[in-house]
Specification:
By secondary structure, the protein is α/β, with parallel strands linked by helices. It has a single domain, classed as 3-Layer(aba) Sandwich (Rossmann fold). About 35% of the residues lie in helices and about 15% in strands. The chain has 5 helices and 7 strands. A 5-stranded parallel beta sheet has the order 2-1-3-4-5, sandwiched between helices. Strand 3, helix 3 and strand 4 form a beta-alpha-beta unit.
Length: about 180
Amino acid sequence: MKIAVLVGSLRKESITRKVARAIEAVTPELTFVHVELGDLPLYNEDLETDAPPAAWTGFRAATKDVDGFLFATPEYNRSVPGALKNALDVGSRPYGSSVFSKKPGAVVSVSPGALGGFGANHHLRQSLVFLDVPVLQQPEMYVGNAGKLFDGDTLTNDATRALFTKFGAAFTAWVKRHYAK
């Protein structure tokens, strides 16, 4: 089963991307494909013509035939970053052609602070409810103090690795439960 990974942080050395990769590493039954968000022009319905921007078309094609989504988001101002929200807007349009509808998803929020991106996690969940994405409810995944969990790209915290393994197993079961093919 193929899972599109949408990472809200565009930074090259993104901690959020490192967290997503660490979860992938302990979730062997799913195949993960990262779909980049940084080149998507802001959604503007005026551009929704017979020839929408090529980046929109590419994003929609890359996510149309996946079996689920892993949404990894940092928290910006107690919400999701604009790049991730824009990807939701692009992927859910034109009306009636959403790439998200009925595909299972999971949310992981990441923060260098103690709260683990709680606000971003819940704002993203609100949008996903409207987009008809059945979202994994438990375990919730808030990764706080994330900057201290890695040495380079390597996860060094065994308790976090165990938590990611539990999350990955629950997400795998969730995707299988909602698998539509």
